[in-house]
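Run folding on both entries below.
>entry_1
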Amino acid sequence: MNMIYRKGIACFVLGVILSTSSCKKFLDVNVDPNNPTKVSAANRLVGAITTSNGAALWRSSREIAGATQYGVTKLLTGTNLNAETWRFTASYFAWQNTYVFTMPNCIDLINLGEEEGSPCFVGAGKTLLAMNFGMMTDQYGAIVIDEFYNGKTQLSLTPKMQDQQTAYQRIDQLLDEAIVAFNNPTNNTTLNSAAGDIIYQGNLEKWKRFAWALKARYLNHLSKKGTLYNPTKILEACRNAFNADGMDAEFPYLAGALPTDENPWFSWGGFVVPNVDPNDATYNPRYFAWSQFFVNMLTSFPVTNTAFQDPRISKIMQAAVSDGQYRGLRPGGGLVAGQGILANGQNGDVTKKNANDYGRFSNSGFYTKQTSPFPFITYSEVKLIEAEARLRSSDVPGALLAYEEGVKSNMRKLGVTGPDINTYWTAQVVDGLNAHFGNLTQGLSHIMRQKYISLCLNPETWVDMRRSDFSQAIYGPSLVRPLNLNTVVFDAGNPNQWLRGMVYETNEATRNPDNVGNNTERYRLLTPLWWDTN
């Protein structure tokens, strides 16, 4: 498997070097059969999957995990603090990673699938391409689609951008086309013929459900857009999406392989600092501990903030070495500020300034182990999307059923026992769950908090928080802006001013200024995206 990963990256590099058609006749003079000038679609699939994960999803997640208050740093020094205090600049490289390293793989996969008469590769390429476009537009707004690299004509260095509404139309169209391609039974080459389908091992039915799941996600993002939000279409997509455990679209990491094959939350970016006392100043990984806000999600119920320990907490994070308690820091505060704000809105224990009073972030549980899979989208998310769509269309019984399955499926995925799942569910019901779903805001509080837990570290959480306007009525009174906030951009006295978008990278703004437009940090970070406005 490790060899396959390396081969996928090599294929991408080879494909880019040799894709220029203008040199074709010259290169045909002496063809070396052991050094082919074109790589087959079957051998390009693993590269498209791998870079969609490592270059795009990971890079889109790394800093956003701080902004959405999953991970927190230990010291109030260095660059580690930047993400959680919203100090984003044009040096945030999700744009470059995705456009340069990821999406050309998807485009070439589509083209090769068409040339070879194997629409299954066209479907896979368009599904991954749509997902990558989705991640980009959800961080930046307007993005390049129509004048992006197409593998056939010369690349424009000053491409026009499509506004986000158009981008969403293109994404939905790509997913429709992917579904049609997966339904085509005539394929000259099977999807996993070169063992490159490291997600589903060639199961086209699961790939098709992957595409439908993404349709449900992006349709559901339009909750602020009036009549453009269509619960009927969302529910149709959910019915055709993942319908059971074990169908999640996720990247399978490996143990004892190359660093690029390990879960990045375990290893990359200085997360693991071996053989150093965590109280030592040199022990300063990118994320030191989980936030108190996340601890609150796992130790209290929505709406009432009743204290109750979610059985998933021990699967996700470690308790403090000092006393076996689960606690976290407040974003921007480091150890200096002590424990973060509690679920009831009161200050935590500010005397807790020892590193051993907090469980570690790296290698702490299900999402940060060496081999932890990194999900693109899951069955649990689909059910929680369904719950929201039903709730917004006043189908309270249906919303409750979908919500229950969404919560329980994530618990099963994390290895929670049946009795513990039932105990947790019964406690929610006793705490007023059914009555809460009779109120839109209270029902959304349950749904969004469960999505925050089950989408752990995924940038999709930032979409939900923006759609919810960072509401304390939904996320609880402990959702507050970070300490040491970036006051160059954000007003210190305005608690309702939150991070809304990303700054385009320097190279894009410098090379393509007319299409990028105003790229100042204050404008970009404060301006809501299209779907984030009513």
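>entry_2
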Amino acid sequence: MKHLTYIASILLILASCGHKDDYTAYAGGIGKDVAAFVSPKKGELVPDAPMARGTEFTVSPEGAMKKDGVKYFLVKAGKKKLYVAEDAIAASPRECVKETELYVQTSASVIDDTLSSHIAGFARKGSKLQILGFDKIQQDGSVSRYKVQSGKQQGWIFGKYTVLSQEEAAERFSEFDEAHAKAKNSFKGGEATGCEFRPYAKPVFPDNPMPDPVNAFYLTINPAGLRNIDSFIALADSTRINAFVIDIKDNECPGYKADAMEKHSPTNYKWAGKEKEKLYKEAIDKLHAKGYYVIGRITCFKDSYYAKDHPSSCICEKATGQPFLHNKSYWPSAFSRDVWQFNVELAKESVRKFGLNEINFDYVRFPDKMISIDEQMDYRNRYGESKVQAIQNFVRYACDELHQLGVYVSIDVFGESANPGYTTAYGQYWPAISTIADAICAMPYPDHFADHYYGISKPWNHPYEIMKAWGKRVQGRQSITASPAKVRTWIQAYHVMRWVDRNGIDNDANFIERQIRGLYDAGLTGGFNTWLASGNIEIYRYQKDAYGLDYPSLPPIDSLHTFITPLERNGND
């Protein structure tokens, strides 16, 4: 039927060519650009700027000419008069795309249909795709998504991941390959060079501007906090806080009764709050009314409730076939596409219901501290990916799906992932994530660093020094990333954990300020999120002075030995 339609269109064009009257047609061809020419002298053709595929023009049959056996027609596109080849004229926009096969340059998910996030399969780099259709032609003439078939697999793939030849598909983006090749696979996370570092076009949504910097308070799903949103707003109004991170789903702490939970994870749905949807709506509406940027946080691959519903998608012990209990939780595998789909569909639903500006995905990783028992685990690795590849592929899928709704995506990572020289055991390789995500949010909490890390004694008592040293490492990671994400760091807003140091310094305003000053002095100016698991407003009030400082305007600290904060000068240290 498709071939008959195409033939009918060609006959329509040919029939039109026999008429003397002008008619409307479109630029069509293989690839986004259609060759166009001008004729300075009769019978001559000189190349002009290419025309974007899909461009509407008026064909003047009487102005046709033939050159080197090819017939060219005079067309009027806007104010320009150009010549295009006969086979570059299409009767309708649907006939403009003439590719019959393409090759995958960047491995990507294949989606069942353009209205859902359901993953039909996985298209590997270098694989051949038969073209069955497309969704729309973009302004530059490229196709947004192609409908494709590869073997028995059918579905949709973004056009930006495909090219016309197998040779081009095999090419790597090599600008930083040497640096990535030096990263060792010491902990079985995978070879860094197995990831794709081709620049990823970071979107800018005019109707949803991301503040620069983003300074965010974190809120839990506790109904008391949501009901007390007016108090949080009043506090934030008196500071330079301009955003809020609100939990949508944490491990064993689902928020509202989402349709995605009911469909994909009945246990999450069961334990979600009955009245939470209304509370979320009211709280987020109030935040938006006051101009705050609102971020929904979703934990991904640490979810005991989803694991209960889908044990076959979890990391399991090979010996028993049972889900593996790690750190008191069960872990759906980051290799399992149904887990990807659940979290992304929950994110999209939350955006549509509450108007969130951004989705923050946490626990985008495999379990840590698994090196000694790694070989004993069944990770459900259907596509033969390494851990770092799976994490990058999830980030690409999540960004592609959520960008369709005009919202940004941030990804949480361990502070360790900023270290050069190796890929992590849990699959987070900083450049592989930063190249795709809109923001990368690391968690370099001072009390998470070992004594003498970066040569600093008791880092938890030296928040400025440790954050500045860590921030310089981050700059190194960003420098070998072609399209780096904004760096927005989680800062430690809780007291130094007692098991780390019973006498560790307090989580007061000075502790907060020193962390943020360290980040800024390392050149990380993208802002911060406050990590305070309780979301206790009294603690935020206790730290208020630190949140009121205009960090971008503060001069760099020249010497650690002369570091005296404004709070100290005011006698509040």
